[in-house]
Amino acid sequence: MSPGSSRGPSCLSCFGWNLRSGRHRLMTAFLRSKQRDMEPKKEITMPFLTDDLLVEILSRLPLKSFCRFKCVCKSWLAFSSDPHHGQKLPRTPVGLLYQRCDYRSPIHLARLPSSDSKIDTALRFVPTYDHLRLMDCSNGLLLCCYEGLTRYFPDVSRSVVCNPATQEWMFLPHTQPGSDSDYHVVLCFDPLWSQHFYVFKFQKRRLSHPVDKPINEFEIFSSQDLLWHSSLLEMEIGFHGRSHFIHGVLYIEHSLDRCVLAMEIAAATTSTQLLKQRTIQLPGIPMPEMSRRCCGYVAQSSGVLCYAQQELDGCTMQIWRLEGSSSERWVVKHRLNMIDAFGRDVLVHTDSSGSLWSNYYILAFDLDRDVVILGEHGTWKFLLFTISTKKLSELQTPTTCELSYKFYYVPYYCKLSSFSASMDLR
Q1: Dihedral, CA atoms, 364, 376, 181, 105, nearest 10 degrees?
Q2: Distance in angstroms (rounded) separating the CA atoms of residues 263 and 278
């Protein structure tokens, strides 16, 4: 044999061993991979996600669903009560609450499309609900007063704060003898600022009062200590009208003077303190005396005060946002053409007294949801205007045209400790 051929069997055997060894390594690797597949995968779980990323994921859920599943873990529960994170959680509006001003009129709801129909906005869960008069609405909570019932039962509490979404309610203690109709009451609740609510009680101006004499003394109820506190206004003017509560500041509109009174109530815990106050001038153009029916509307959106006003001819509506913390300024966000929406270019008429009447008036608007709710004079219909599509559709026709109380309602599904810890204070 040649030297090369003598090494042949050895090479073949070596080759066979290497082949068997390779098959063994491949089989071992395959079995290990199958074993890893059968083991629980160690993927990224919630504890490894940052808070902002987790909130960004949860913000895709409706607030009602989030509140239902927040008991999954402690972090979800913590997020639901954190104002910074809670600001990103969506809240879906239900519609427009309205009620006639006469005695024992039921509370109605003009529902928005795809709204939650399970919410009892008639307040049937509140004792003697058919005697309730809707007074104010603030970020999901409602303030009501009993009409006529206290005439025969003076020991019954005259006011109640309730949450239709959770069916919780709480009687407010008496402050002093007299009818609640003698006062202008305001409900203040902002879950992004505090889990407690406040009720302002301003005495109404009587006919015997001089016009230039302001009523600057009022009372504040706090759900934190369940007590009423007395306080004073520094402004030399009496304010009234629609109100909004944003981050501890109460904004009360005074449409006749085209300004808003801003009152910071964070320090309103004792009877000797004055609230910090300032006035904010409204944008737009002053309307002449004969066109009071063309006034604007103050609202809030994304925690910012907003203002909408139609022009004198009614053909255009502008919406501003109040921006800037130190130097407050109004910035135009939308300029809406109402001619195309209504399909006609005459949107103002004059009555027999010479006063101007717009064919529509602003009931509410929500920039986050891209909607404006209007009322139409003559037909008394509720109309829904979509800002992005510029389309106008009928929302509902009320059962009566004599409406005094109309509130934009966005439900709040979280339970408040103020309700669970309170007792019957009648």
Answers
A1: -110
A2: 7
Question: Which is more confident, 374 or 242?
Answer: 374
Domain check: are 143 and 220 in the same one? yes
Q: Cα separations (Å) of 426 from 145, 154, 175?
A: 13, 10, 12
Mean pLDDT to the nearest integer, 311-331: 85
Q: In 112-234, which ranges are continuous DSSP H helix?
A: 149-152
Residue 198 sits in the same domain as residue 278: yes
375 domain-assigned? yes
Shared domain check, 153 and 204: yes
Is 50 exceeded by the pLDDT of residue 268? Answer: no
pLDDT band at residue 274 under the 50/70/90 scheme? low
The total of structural domains in the chain comes to 2
CA 413 to chain centre: 12
Q: Is residue 155 located within the same domain as residue 291?
A: yes
User: Read out DSSP for 264-316?
Assistant: E-TTTTSTTPPPEEEEEE--S-PPPGGGGGG--EEEEETTEEEEEEE-TTSSE
Are 152 and 113 found together in one domain? yes
55 and 171 fall within a common domain? no
Strands (DSSP E) contained in 64-122 are: 95-100, 108-111
CB 275 within 8 A of CB 262: no
Residues of the domain holding 63: 49-84
DSSP summary character for residue 39: S
- Going 30 to 31 to 34 to 35, the CA torsion angle's sign is negative
Residue for token pair 């063994």: 24
Asked whether residue 29 is assigned to any structural domain, the reply reads no
Average pLDDT of the residues in 310-316: 88
pLDDT tens-place string over residues 145-191: 887 655 555 555 678 999 998 899 999 987 654 455 567 789 999 98
In a domain, 113, yes or no: yes
Residue after which a domain boundary falls, among 27, 57, 84:
84
Segment among 27-41, 74-88, 95-109, 344-358 with least mean pLDDT: 27-41
Let me know if residue 238 belongs to a domain.
yes
pLDDT of residue 199: 92
d(CA 202, CA 396) in angstroms, rounded, equals: 33
**Which amino acid belongs to residue 394?**
E
| pLDDT value for 391 | 92
DSSP 168: E
